Amino acid sequence: MAILVKSSTHEKDKNRFATLWEAFSDVKKLTGYHFILDAAAEPETTKCENFIGPQENALVIDWGRRVRDIKKRQASWMNNGYGQSVRSEAIWCNPPFDNKFEFIQKSYDTVMSSKIPVVMMLPYERQTIWWQTMIHGIASKVFIPDRRYSYYLPDGKTILNQVNFGSAFIVIEPNNTHPTMYIDFSVMRLRTEGVLHQPRNLIEEYRQADSARRKFVLAESKQRKQRAK
Question: What is the pLDDT of residue 77?
Answer without folding.
Answer: 57
